[in-house]
Amino acid sequence: MGIITAEATFEGQAPEAARIADKVKEITGLPMTLDESGPEIRGDLYSLHAYLALAHFPNQRIELTAYQPGSVKEFLKTTGTDRFPFARVVRGANEPPGTQTVYVKGYTGQEPTLFFATKLSLEALGGRLRKPTGENERREYGSRITVAELERRHRKLERQSLLALSLGVILLPILLPLWVASIVWHLVTMPWRIRKAIKLVRSNADRP
To answer: Which residues of 29-64 are buried (b: 16+ CB within 10 A; e: fewer)?
Structure first.
């Protein structure tokens, strides 16, 4: 299962989890469940760590996180990893001074109403989205819906997932031999490709 993410940067302090949940409820018109992590999870790293779900589908949660200002840089420095090249791209390590970013994490295969409604809620609360929401998504997920409509969306996604799974099963007898053949071809031709690479290196080394 893949991960889908979104980011919203706020000038000053980011809103609390309860305020975000209230805004999602306002946009969708649906009851929410909010599970905020305690200090044993947040520690000195997070100022916000929570899970948000639509009450009628409590198992399809998204994660909300925000870091204490400077905490990620301090963590990298403490662990001695701030000198490594990857430190520049660690999430939360390069937030501009005076700002705080809320990170949203969901999963592929989830019905997307909650994910997009959360993005739109963060934007409505003053956040600047790293990747703006498209107009089609705004029209579909930016207004109030009924529980019946939400259930219809979930049934539609389940049908699409079942269709994709069935198609994969049907194509498996065709794709599997092709996959095996490509591996065999790669192994068979590897000595020739190695010799070719060695000759190329030697010819370049012999040039004046």
So the answer is: ebebebebbeeeebeeebbbbbbbbbeebeebbbbb
d(C-alpha 200, C-alpha 57), whole Å: 60
Residue type, 22: D
Listed by start position, the domains of the chain span: 3-145
For residue range 49-100, what is the model confidence (pLDDT) as tens digits? 999 999 999 999 999 999 999 999 888 988 888 888 888 889 998 899 999 9
CA distance to 15, 42, 43, 91, per residue, from 38 (Å): 17, 6, 8, 21
Evaluate whether 70 touches 94 at the Cβ level (below 8 Å): no
Count of residues for the chain? 208
Please state, in angstroms and rounded to a whole number, the distance separating the CA atoms of residues 51 and 68: 18
CA angle 102, 114, 71 (to 5 degrees): 15
- Any idea what DSSP says for residue 2? -
Partners of 128 in the β-ladder = 9
| DSSP H or E stretch at residue 106 | strand 99-107
Q: Return the bridge partners of 67, or none.
A: 46
